[in-house]
Amino acid sequence: MPHLTRLDALGAVERAFPRDPIVLTLGTTVREMLHLTGVKPNHLYVLDSMGLPPAIGLGLALGLEDSKFGKLVVVEGDGSLLMGFSALSTIGRLSPSKLFLVVLDNGTYAATGGQPSGAETTDFAAVARACGFDGRDADDAQALERELDEAREADGPRLLRVRIGPENLKTGYFLEDPVVLGHSFAEFLRLNG
Questions:
Q1: 100 in helix, strand or coil?
Q2: For residue 149, what pLDDT is reported?
Q3: What ranges in 23-171 are assigned the alpha helix state H?
Q4: In which region does residue 104 sit, left (phi positive, over 0), alpha (psi from -120 to 50) or beta (all else)?
Q5: Alpha helix ranges (H) inside 95-140
Q6: CA 193/CA 187 separation, integer angstroms
Q7: Which residues on neighbouring strands pair with residue 76, listed in sequence order?
Q8: CB under 8 Å to 82, separation ≥6 — which residues?
């Protein structure tokens, strides 16, 4: 049974990449990160777009290749990644040096009621490697911290699958206008990259 919660994993990602751009997948991940940090200009909150964060992150990472940012981090869920699985092949083909994809794997579709996602039969790290880029796993807090430290210095795209428990923090909904969120994130990139 996993010992990490989503909050544990999100806190570790935030500590490791406090000023780098972070793309956050929909639903519970967005709401729990907001619980930890409040709204931050370097966070892009992807609302109601299951399956798209890796593709969004890929485009951003390619555009930020010559920027001052060390990484473009995408925090994705297992269910959402399964819906946008084809992006992994494109990530491998285009090989953006700054892309770091963190997959929080709780084995469920947390955003839609906790149905099983099918992740239990999918080795995300092996899929990344089969697509031509680095894939790794972290199953506890120590492994997660070590992998986050290594990812800061790594060149080339990397996927890190982090096993987390199925529990969700009770939070309010985040119903901001996606256009406003996108504009704020673009301004952060323009002013800091």
A1: strand
A2: 97
A3: 28-37, 53-63, 78-83, 87-94, 124-130, 141-153
A4: beta
A5: 124-130
A6: 10
A7: 103
A8: 51, 117, 118, 119, 122
Taking the domains of the chain in order of start, what are their residue ranges?
6-192
Q: Quick one: tokens of 144? A: 């997660």
C-alpha 83/C-alpha 81 separation (Å) is 5
* Residues of the chain below pLDDT 50: 1
CA distances from 86 to 53, 98, 118, 131 (A): 12, 19, 16, 10
pLDDT tens-digit series, residues 117-159: 888 899 999 999 999 999 999 999 999 999 999 999 999 999 9
- Amino acid symbol at 8: D
Sign of the alpha-carbon dihedral angle for 83, 27, 15, 191: positive
Fold held by 6-192:
Rossmann fold (3.40.50)
Q: Give all strands of the β-sheet with 134-138 in edge-to-edge order.
A: 43-45, 22-24, 72-77, 99-105, 158-163, 134-138
Per DSSP, the chain holds a count of helices (H) and strands (E) of 8, 8
Using the structure block, give the residue that is written with the tokens 């985040």.
174
In single-letter form, the type of residue at position 29 comes to: T
CA distance 99 to 155: 9
Q: Are 83 and 119 in contact (CB under 8 A)?
A: no
Nearest to 128 by CA among 136, 118, 120: 136
Entry pTM: 0.93
